[in-house]
Amino acid sequence: MIDLRSDTVTQPTQEMRQAMAKATVGDDVYQDDPTVAELEKEAAAMVGKEAALFVPSGTMGNQLAIMANTRRGDEIIVGYNSHIVTYEVGGASVLSGVGYRLINNSDNTISAEDVNNSIRPNDIHLPTTSLLCLENALCNGTVVPLATMEGAYKAAKKHNIPVHLDGARLFNASLYLGVDAKEVTKYCDTVMFCISKGLCAPVGSLLCGDEPFVARARKYRKMLGGGMRQAGILAAAGLISLQKMTKRLGDDHENAQHLTNALVQLPYIDIDKTKVHISMVFFHINKPINDGEFVNYMLKNGVKINGAEDGNKYRFVTHNDVTKADTEKAINLLKGYIENL
């Protein structure tokens, strides 16, 4: 079965499975698990931060960052279409009691001007702006230029506002930009990145920042039920994610480009090649089709895809378990379905 729904569906490699079986473990709530400690140390070093915290999911990592950086009644500056706003079940308002100061630009980026215009003045009637949340790569699969990140970061720091980066696909973004991940994360104070997406670990994300921040986040992790015990079994796979899987993401990007180049040739497909930056390919089918029938057709022929969003807009995602030949099979099936309508 070829699964193009997301890079979250990646299977752990055989090397990961063997490492998990042999992992040395302890109780991570007591901070006694040596494999978790090793993962956290390596993760922090890779993004240029003092410390890191292993968490079950990217959503928890983002929410812990908000909890540890804000007080109830505060306001955070965040993108209108960001993962934090769109896909985290309103967690920031429920868990941290903060409001959203939404930035709604057509390219989903946040500029220095946006930050300057969104910071609340010191007025008794207004909430306190306490955090800027950036994202790179973005949910739409594009990558934010470093100059844009730098401008937003400097604007926030001028007002002593911390900056959190949702870097779920941080290493995809740094690969596209042609820089080390630390060149991206120097424009944030805290960063979350996932190892359970394109990096193939079965579970987990890392939340990184300075030591006092991580200590606060660790306590909130316990509050949310995220304190894991013999988590070294999971961390063992995560170490391979950092050491090896970050170095093969280029294959996924190449397969996404191959898929894009095939789609752009089809007259009934609308796709903007300039917006395929990482392993995520978004496109519209400009002929009327039955979404449910199309998804079921693909499934019956060995390809799993998500249903359409916003009309006939689809997303195919390449990853470690998808080959170039797999993308060609998916394209041929798509062509066969639409051309026989």
Question: Could you give the topology of this structure?
Answer:
Elements: E1 2-3, H1 14-22, H2 34-46, E2 51-55, H3 58-69, E3 75-79, H4 83-86, H5 91-96, E4 99-103, H6 112-118, E5 129-135, H7 146-158, E6 163-166, H8 170-177, H9 181-185, E7 190-194, E8 205-209, H10 211-223, H11 232-243, H12 249-263, E9 269-270, E10 280-285, H13 291-300, E11 303-304, E12 313-317, H14 324-339
3D structure, described in words:
The structure is a single chain. With 341 residues, this protein is an alpha/beta fold. Helix content is 42%, strand content 16%. The chain has helices at 14-22, 34-46, 58-69, 83-86, 91-96, 112-118, 146-158, 170-177, 181-185, 211-223, 232-243, 249-263, 291-300, 324-339, and strands at residues 2-3, 51-55, 75-79, 99-103, 129-135, 163-166, 190-194, 205-209, 269-270, 280-285, 303-304, 313-317. The chain has a seven-stranded mixed sheet, with helices on both faces. A three-stranded antiparallel sheet has the order 9-10-12, with helices on one face. Strand 5 (129-135), helix 7 and strand 6 form a beta-alpha-beta unit. The longest helix has 16 residues, at 324-339. It starts with a strand and ends with a helix. The model has no long low-confidence stretch (mean pLDDT 97).
Give the uncertain stretches in residue-range form.
Answer: none
Strand order of the largest sheet: 2-8-7-6-5-3-4
Largest sheet: 7 strands, mixed
- What characteristic shape results from the CA principal axes? globular
Query: Overall pLDDT, averaged?
Result: 97
Query: Strand pairing plus helix content: what structural class?
Result: alpha/beta
Helical residue percent? Answer: 40-55%
Rg (CA only): 21 Å
The ordered H/E elements are: EHHEHEHHEHEHEHHEEHHHEEHEEH
